[in-house]
Every structure is written in structure tokens, then in C-alpha cells.
Amino acid sequence: xTAGSKPGTVTxxxxxxxxxxxLLSGTSQVTPNFWADPKTGINYPVAIQTPQHLVDSVxxxxxxxxxEFIGSDHHITDEVWLEPTPGHTPGHVSVHIRSRGEEAVIxxxxxxxxxxxxxxxxxxNFDMDKxxxxxxxxxxxxxxxxxxxxxxxxxxxxxxxxxxxxxxDAWQLALE
Length: 176
Hints:
CATH topology of the largest domain: Metallo-beta-lactamase, Chain A
Radius of gyration: 17 Å
CATH superfamily of the largest domain: Ribonuclease Z/Hydroxyacylglutathione hydrolase-like
Number of domains: 2
Structural class: alpha+beta
Number of strands: 8
Strand content: 15-25%
């Protein structure tokens, strides 16, 4: 629940084509067929065929005008905002949360395994722009290393969260 919101009024922050099918219809994730620029709404093709999950899950939302295009640095509330983390997809974001003196960042698809803390240049198999993804991960790790900002790895296996700490010339996920 977002602070100050009424029950039933909070909607998903993002509706990406590679996640919509899983979130809305329970089908497996597939490669997206477009990227929509959040500022202009222009679609950029990245594949030839429109997957059925887009027709089933995304098109009805767009047709019903239940969507809103937002920027990659959008503030949902004073406590929750998007942080640009491009590379996995153009316009990719992570979610930053600050409340009651504590902070956390949900990585989303920016990082898929804690090993990428030790080697941020390690490419993610699913990054559309591998070089940008590596630059983003390095900047992220340097920005949050040795700070009390909990990192919640969307795709990390257990443990899924911790703090980035220096380990010699690299970094690691600390649990305490």
C-alpha cells in the first residue's frame, strides 16, 4: 500500500511486455517485442512477431486507457521512486524506497545474481545492451557500497537481500 493511498487505488508501477504475461495471465515470460519510450509513448521494435501474451495482457490495458507513461526517474511518493538502471532494456528502472530512516533498492532486472557484485562487468544473458548494463551495474555498486541501503535482488536466490560491502578490489552482499 502506498502511503496516503486508498485501498484499491494502487496499481502496478510498470507493465513491461516481458513481465505482463506472467503477472496477468500466468504464462511464462518471453522476450519483449517492443520497448515503449515512457516520455513519448513511441514503440521501438525489437522482434518481428507480436507474442500472444501482449495481445491478451497488454493491449486491453492500453485500449482501456488504464496506463500512464512515466519517466525513468518518476517519484511515486516522497518515499518511493524509480531510479534509472538501463541496460537490461532501454528505460529499465529499479525501485528506491526510503522510510523511517531506512533505505532499500529493488534491483528488478538490473542484476540477476550476487556474483555480479564481485564483477559488475559480467554480462547478463538477457541484457539487451550488455555494455550499458555493465556500466549501470558498476555505477550502482559504487554508489551503494558500504552504505546502509538494503539491496533487494529481484532474481537473487536465498538470501535475496543484504548490503553491498567492499571485499578487496570487488564487492559482495553482506547479510548483516
